[in-house]
């Protein structure tokens, strides 16, 4: 029986760690992959690196940031899509293990795994292991637990794999939306996880299969000085509460029970990120409409 094709998709902009990233994709033990690089680097450095590796599918992208990510994801041809960002790394067994998690589980729409944070020199700095055993959970439970807990235990896009058919069912216009709230410039990854999970179950692999890089010298979305929209990565946690209620994912009682927690977040971050005040206002207005 032939193995399903997996598309390893690399939306790229930063060249500093790109060759390591690409080599980690090429070095997968799983034999049936396509590697697609969507390059928005202002120089030709990424193009030149790709040219040294036959078989890499290279496309020069004229769009930036989220649009480049969407263009790359929707260019995939595989049964499964494995995102990989341009400074992150995959364990050699990553694709193999994730495909195995899909095998025989037709209801699973997304797989994620334990991961490790690394620094500029590839030194390990933080282990992410949300559960102590591999297993399956309902997509609704993932959505509810992350929303009510105001946390992301899945991690970054590099840590997941999903079905291409699910991606197309959602559509690029809705991938980063939850209810009427647009997370495109904030928690776009979490919104995508919720949308994938809405189409079935999710499976967690309790193995360290990816490496997320934090390098303060790079123009990364996780760096405060390089990302003017970083505040949305905090304020969206507040907006996701009412947006999840809007689509029936959490109850009115559960939403109302978050008021003390949300107020504490507002007091803690209102002087740090201007977006917090606006999201808190939306949250309060939504609750007032429920109660009034």
TrEMBL record:
**Could you cite one Gene Ontology molecular function of this protein?**
transferase activity
Say yes or no: keyword Transferase present: yes
Q: Name one Pfam family in it.
A: Glycos_transf_2
Xref: InterPro entries: Glyco_trans_2-like, Glycosyltransf_2, Nucleotide-diphossugar_trans
Give all residue intervals belonging to the Glycosyltransferase 2-like domain: 7-170
The alphabetical list of record keywords is: Transferase
Q: Does the keyword Transferase apply?
A: yes
* The protein, known as: Glycosyltransferase
| Organism of origin | Pseudoduganella buxea
């Amino acid at each position: 029986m032939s193995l399903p094709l997996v598309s390893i998709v690399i939306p790229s902009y930063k060249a500093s760690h790109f060759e390591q990233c690409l080599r980690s994709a090429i070095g997968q033990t799983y034999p049936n992959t396509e590697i697609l690089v969507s390059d928005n680097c202002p120089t030709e450095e990424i193009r030149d690196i790709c040219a040294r590796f036959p078989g890499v599918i290279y496309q020069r992208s004229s769009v930036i940031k989220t649009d480049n990510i969407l263009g790359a994801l929707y260019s995939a041809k595989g049964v499964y899509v494995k995102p990989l960002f341009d400074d992150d790394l995959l364990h050699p067994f990553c694709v193999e293990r994730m495909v195995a998690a899909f095998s025989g589980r037709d209801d699973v729409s997304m797989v994620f795994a334990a991961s490790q944070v690394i620094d500029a020199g590839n030194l390990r700095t933080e282990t992410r292991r949300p559960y102590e055993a591999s297993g399956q959970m309902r997509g609704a439970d993932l959505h509810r637990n992350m929303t009510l807990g105001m946390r992301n235990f899945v991690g970054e896009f590099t840590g997941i794999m999903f079905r291409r058919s699910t991606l197309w069912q959602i559509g690029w216009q809705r991938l980063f939306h939850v209810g009427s709230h647009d997370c495109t410039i904030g928690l776009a990854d979490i919104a995508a996880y919720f949308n994938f999970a809405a189409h079935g179950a999710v499976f967690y692999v309790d193995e360290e299969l990816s490496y997320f890089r934090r390098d303060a010298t790079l123009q990364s979305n996780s760096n405060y000085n390089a990302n003017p929209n970083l505040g949305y990565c905090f304020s969206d946690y507040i907006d996701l509460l009412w947006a999840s209620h809007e689509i029936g994912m959490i109850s009115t009682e559960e939403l109302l029970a978050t008021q003390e927690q949300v107020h504490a977040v507002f007091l803690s971050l209102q002087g740090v990120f201007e977006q917090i005040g606006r999201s808190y206002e939306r949250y309060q207005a939504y609750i007032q409409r429920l109660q009034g």
